[in-house]
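Thread: sanity check for a docking pose with betaine aldehyde

Original post by kr_44:
Hi all, I'm comparing my docking run against an independent structure prediction. Below are the sequence and the ligand SMILES. Could someone generate the full complex and paste the structure tokens? I mainly care about where the ligand ends up relative to the chain.
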Amino acid sequence: MAAPPAIPRRGLFIGGGWREPTLGRRIPVINPATEDTIGDIPAATAEDVELAVAAARSAFLLDGGSRWARASGATRAKYLNAIAAKIKEKISYLALLETVDSGKPKDEAVADMDDVAACFEYYAALAEALDGKQHAPISLPMEEFKTYVLKEPIGVVGLITPWNYPLLMATWKVAPALAAGCTAVLKPSELASLTCLELGAICEEIGLPSGVLNIITGLGPDAGAPIASHPHVDKIAFTGSTATGKTIMTAAAQMVKPVSLELGGKSPLVIFDDVADIDKAVEWAMFGCFFNGGQVCSATSRLLLHEKIAERFLDRLVEWAKNIKISDPLEEGCRLGSVISKGQYEKIKKFISTARSEGATILHGGDRPKNLGKGFFIEHTIITGVSTSMQIWREEVFGPVICVKVFKTESEAVELANDTHYGLAGGVISDDLERCERIAKVIHSGIVWINCSQPTLVQAPWGGNKRSGFGRELGEWGLENYLSVKQVTRYCKDELYGWYQRPSKL
Ligand SMILES: NC(=O)c1ccc[n+]([C@@H]2O[C@H](COP(=O)([O-])OP(=O)(O)OC[C@H]3O[C@@H](n4cnc5c(N)ncnc54)[C@H](O)[C@@H]3O)[C@@H](O)[C@H]2O)c1
Ligand SMILES: C[N+](C)(C)CC=O
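Reply from moderator J.T.:
Ran it for you. Here is the predicted complex with betaine aldehyde included:
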């Protein structure tokens, strides 16, 4: 088993340096796999947000913006690439910190850190490419005007992120925001902030100009809400629950502040009877909902099985599920760690007991693993006998819990897949690719996977419809989130425009 890392004691990262929170409060950091308190993080309040926003604002405006906002994309790219290089250098340490902070298996944390570095590199390349896209001419049907377009950073952005992929979800916002030339105040989740604070240390090491990125840790209502409602924050990018998303949108609306929202989901995975390799489909079904303990916004937590394969599929799914190693996430080969917190553990247990009391069957799991007396561990769980009115079918669990329904026809499968207020992701598994393409078109979601579940590619757009939010992260869409488009139009004739009469010279 890997040794737990030393937990640094950090302050708030504001204006390029470290500060204790104004009110001196701190929040304990609990390793969810052991329930031990392993450190603490600063608990920022509105006073600290004020300082962080002021630092971001002055970094944005410094020297007319020439140091950052109006510097070339190539200049900003150098910093982003330097951050990526440092992440790679510290990958093992960062992965261990993420593991003890979140409870996710060490191997998953390593993969997350790889993705973090790749995301910084990707947006470094887009920052450079942005230089060549400025002054793009607009073709007009007249000669007296000439128009071009400038893409400008929106300004100071507030980035509020969740705990399930702490540094990765922050990076999905920080990297494109900085690439665009914005300056930022990042507020990670109070449940897992350690690696985001280390990002502050990395920014310090590589000499990122002061105030370009500020990192404020603390509780949502104390440290997040003042960012959302701050008059000098020009945009909010939020990832988290639909409930918090609504609160943030309401606050931002008071100032007509743009928001992008990446919220929850209850995504379907539809599996047809024509699959020749049932194990391949079973593995994707497990990956779709047990990876990261199911604490994934896009988890395909509603499994729809064609009636002709349902029984065989479920037998095989249970056999595969029995093979998953649940252990301290620092142990070699761990594939299911603990969930993030006691609160989340209780919430998942309640979902399972409600499903049971509503008449569903717990086919596998449903309890604390017998060999793990301490820590917020919960077995990966498969629930059958589910009706569409049950809570387990309708609400996001955010835990390793799959609920299963059986269908007879393709149209019934589509109707069930779309029977949700959410619209983040969906998947279809079939050997008939035409059928897959057909279903991809009619699933109401921002992402559809064919013959897989969950691959996340930095180059491709990510985001949802309906109550899963709006706006897209990643790819070039992720950069556009932080840019505003300015039209510049010039009148270019020597003559008067000629609409009004020139006064006579008397
Ligand atoms: N769509 C996506 O890409 C995506 C990705 C990851 C997670 N999620 C969603 O995130 C949720 C789980 O994350 P969570 O429990 O951290 O969500 P959450 O909404 O509880 O918290 C998210 C962030 O918002 C902050 N916050 C809480 N109250 C606030 C307030 N009043 N004002 C401002 N900020 C506030 C929190 O401190 C945290 O930093 C799930 O619903 C999941 O589906 C979505
Ligand atoms: C996209 N992913 C899986 C990294 C994070 C969503 O919760």
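The mean pLDDT is 97. Hope that helps with the comparison, let us know if your pose agrees.
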